[in-house]
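=== Structure Prediction Worksheet ===
Name of assembly: unnamed complex
Input type: mixed (protein and possibly other molecules)
Chain count: two
Listed entries:
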Amino acid sequence: MNASFAFVRAALRVLLAAALLPLLSGAASVGKAAPELGMKSLDGAVVELKQFRGQVVYLDFWATWCAPCQQSLPVLEKLNRELASRGFQVIGVNQDGDARKAAELARRLQLSFPSVWDPKGQIASRYSPPTMPSSFLIDREGRVRRVFKGFKPGDAEIIKREVTAVLDEGGTQ
Amino acid sequence: MNRLVALLVCALVAGCAPVKPWQREHLAEPAMAWDPDPVLSGYRDHAYFSKEASSGGASAGAAGCGCN
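=== Predicted Assembly ===
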């Protein structure tokens, strides 16, 4: 009987630890430092957030199997081109298992911003995007300022307003 | 007590885990949808309603990418 109690206690400890683990994982949230990327883009170059320190970064999680992502990408491309001169950079994080599919869509949509390929969800695990697509607005100091959940056509104006507000804060470029 | 232990063992070995939003690639495939052709299903529902004077009960929730 004592052995059974010990087993139950051990099992409860394991369950408790499993329940608390997500709280300790340090997922990206507003006000915290944005976790590093450090993985290769669809073009093969390693992309790291520290390369863009001093710029406002819009980190967008997307995939070819996500229909609203395909609506959001042209909007982000336009925004990237419009605001690049002010120190703004869009970076995609692609979640496809097959990089060729992602590269094909990026080519078709003529995306000029880099997209990191994250087939095993290593970056996604650090950021925990609440849905697909999700985006993280990162300020010039590398802190997450806003999390955008999902995308609807009317969101383009909201995104532009939020990005412009962070750009207007100035800071080092 | 044995029942409790058995219950805990079952819970631990069940292997259930929520699918994260970024892990839904295979669930988003058309083959995973309950209703791969909603238009055709609509026609069938209409024909069924016309013949039987009753409708509903022919569909359920779907798989899909769970986006937005």
